[in-house]
Amino acid sequence: MKTDLSCYNNSWYKPGNAFKRFLWYVTSLIFFQNSFFLPSSFKVFLLRAFGAKVGSGVVLKPNISIKYPWNLRMENNIWIGERVWIDNLALVYIGNNVCVSQGAYLLTGNHNYSLPYFDLIVKPITLEEGVWIGAKSIVCPGVTCKSHAVLSVGSIATKDLEPYAIYQGNPSTLIKKRKIAAVPLINTFFNS
Q1: What is the distance between the alpha carbons of residues 97 and 111, in angstroms, rounded to a whole number?
Q2: How do the domains of the chain map onto residue ranges?
Q3: pLDDT tens per residue across all 192 residues of the chain
């Protein structure tokens, strides 16, 4: 057998009506995929208008690509860095206090290379509370990054990341446990 892309068919996949997708594409080009420092609150407003569920304290840097906001759920106090690509053909869930650093890629779609028609595969991504996705890293379809996991710079997560663990490489492997230091009471007093 050989691959035969002339027979590729993803008609089963329904990402939303064509007008809504076109309207989002134009909105995204003007307000998200540019180098202007537009207020995050304005971008959050636009995401919500297109069906995203977005909490408070979300920071959205310039040059962000989001495929379909209606497949995006973001909790509170989230940082999304420059040139992040959220390719959310399926649901992308981002929990509280998550940082997705510049150039990271959240990839929910793939193709079945074992079938001749290269069938589309879509699987959700979950980034639980306190996760840090390092710059230029990739999270693959179906991956859950569990509470406070770290995917270091340029790494690729092809499988779930365990909680409070730091992963590195391609494919990423566990390199050590993540330990978060306690904040001295004096710092808490001066920072409030």
Answers
A1: 32
A2: 15-148
A3: 899 999 999 999 999 999 999 999 999 999 999 998 999 999 999 999 999 999 999 999 999 999 999 999 999 999 999 999 999 999 999 999 999 999 999 999 999 999 999 999 999 999 999 999 999 999 999 999 999 999 999 999 999 999 999 999 999 999 999 999 887 766 655 565
Contact 20, 27 (CB under 8 A): no
Render 148-189 in DSSP notation, one character per residue: T-EE-TT-EE-SPBPTTEEEETTTTEEEEE---PPPPHHHHH
The domain at 15-148 falls in which architecture?
3 Solenoid (2.160)
Residue 185: HSE in the Cβ half-sphere, 13 Å Cα cutoff:
0
Amino acid identity for residue 183 in this structure: V
- For residue 84, the 8-state DSSP code is -
Q: At 39, is the secondary structure helix, strand, or coil?
A: coil
